Amino acid sequence: MRLTPSGGASILDYLLHGHPTVEEDYGVFLGTTYRMHSAASTFISEAVYEGKLTSDPVNDQQVVEVPTEYTGPLNKDAGIIFLPAEHQGNTQASDEEIAVIAQSVKQLLGRKFTAKDGAQWPVSWNDILFVAPYNHQVNKLRIALSALPGGTQAKVGSVDMFQGREAPIVFRSMCTSDANESPRGLNFLLDKNRLNVAISRAQSLAIIVANPSLINTPTQSIGQMKKVNMFCHLVNG
To answer: Cα(176)–Cα(187) distance, rounded to whole angstroms?
Structure first.
């Protein structure tokens, strides 16, 4: 449903008045997440919801144990991890990012996951979601992961496919070497709502795999500057 042509905005956009959350005199903002560990939800709260989103304390029992002898980049039991994958000329898919993801999965499978109710089990393919913005990367990821032991069970899809879903671990592949050359451009690739949905599927770990040069993407408007700034916040923690 839309407002009159003179309004030019959806009813929700109109009620939000440019704010990321509903103002108190217009409605109720549900400010507690019962899904995400606070180490992951803090970024979402600050970057998307004006610091108003909190995590239910019991969520912090959801952790992916880091082996005591492990010294690699997957060294957090919860929160957001950025894994760089340098590449050039990619628009809708990146073999470089797929290689990083495949190697990371090998390191995560079998780690002990603790749920909020205290139940524990080794991380399996059922505990991981793989999210990409473009179908080309979705298809290439599915093929590459299926070559790994048990990888035919991998849950790979777009943000739209996983909306409403959750898992202990979520991978988000950004695919593109240069945001301005990506299909639908910077505004789609770095859209805060799509990043929000992807990251907030994670109960414990959200892992972002991207070309680190994306933080240097040239912008043409204040809105685009805000999108790149949010991505910088995501990458740098």
So the answer is: 13
27 lies in some domain? no
- 136-179 pLDDT, tens per residue? 999 999 999 999 999 999 999 998 888 888 999 999 999 999 99
The CATH number of the domain where 125 resides is what? 3.40.50.300
C-alpha span between 43 and 40 (Å, rounded):
6
Measured distance CA(219)–CA(228) in Å, rounded: 8
Range of the domain at 187: 61-236
Enter the tokens of residue 119. 């139940």
Cα separation of 128 and 35, whole Å?
15
Do residues 109 and 123 touch, judged by C-beta distance below 8 A? yes
Token pair belonging to 48: 């998307």
- Strands 112-114 and 63-64 come out as antiparallel
Residues 177-202 as b or e (16 or more Cβ within 10 Å = b)? bbbeebeeebeebbbbebbbbbbbbb
Residue 24 domain-assigned (yes or no): no
Q: Under 8 Å CB-to-CB from 160, ≥6 apart: which residues?
A: none
- pTM of the entire predicted model: 0.86
Domain membership flag for residue 217: yes
Q: How far apart are CA 193 and CA 205, in angstroms?
A: 19
Structural domains of the chain, count? 1
Distance of alpha carbon 95 from alpha carbon 139, whole angstroms: 12
User: Has residue 36 been placed in a domain?
Assistant: no
Do residues 169 and 207 touch, judged by C-beta distance below 8 A?
Answer: yes
